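Journal club prep, shared notes

We agreed each person brings one worked example of a sequence with its structure written out as tokens. Mine is Cell division protein FtsX. I'm keeping it raw so we can talk through how to read the token line rather than staring at a rendered picture. Sequence first:
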Amino acid sequence: MRAQFVLSEIGVGLRRNLTMTFAVIVSVALSLGLFGASLLMRDQVSTMKGYWYDKVNVSIFFCNKNDADTGANCAKGAATEQQKNDILAELHRLPIVQTVQHETSDQAYKHYKEQFGDTPVAGLVTPDQLPESFRVKLKDPTKYDVIKSAFSERPGVQEVQDQRDTVEPLFNLLNGMNIAALCVMGLMLIVALMLIVNTVRVSAFSRRRETGIMRLVGASSFYIQMPFILEAAIAGLLGAAFACVLIVGGKAILINNWLAQKIQVINFIGWDSVAQVLPLVLLIGLLMPALAAFFALRKYLKV
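Then the structure, token by token:
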């Protein structure tokens, strides 16, 4: 009988405040959708970093005969074979170095031609203008500073370059977008909480006669509050379910059917990442409105 009464009160409350309940559902859906998207974007950035950082190298470029005036390291002309051999031996002794590949000027020119093809820029460079280099693959790409500090000031070394600098701006952009999404999510979450609190207060005010009678017959405070809390929890759960639909749809349409087809060099996150986010979204969507309603009602429904 009590359960039937609580359920009937929930139905009455949802019908009376249909417009505000709909606003709560939409606000919760948008805020939790942004929350889930932010978590997935964080996983995507981590996946991309692991993928690209594993492929990038640290390049040690040697002075050639055209670099005599480019810096103190190249003041004595091109790097000697002894200098190259000494650096190679030191690289092999370093525990953070995985492999070392020697690239000659001719090989560098070949790669340059492959990159620029038949464009006018390709004819501006000759093989003797491109320096020899050691392409160093590290076991931990974040240890680039060890190589730079050890070899950047060595005689015969023109420059030590980390290829991570090429992809780092992209990661910074994605992290910035993630922070912006979290800020918008926080704003939407505040709006959703305010709507939940106002909806619960309006519902409690409109049913003050019923709650007054329940106080007189000795109903407990929790029993009086239960219909209002469940109303908020149901609205929040519906919003969370809609947020899950948005997240799954975004993964299926935006990533799988569009981005993955257009940008094939990126290793996009899989459905396992989405499956980890959805339960969290549903849990927050259920608990957040229920707790907000509980604390909002303490002032209005005291026994």
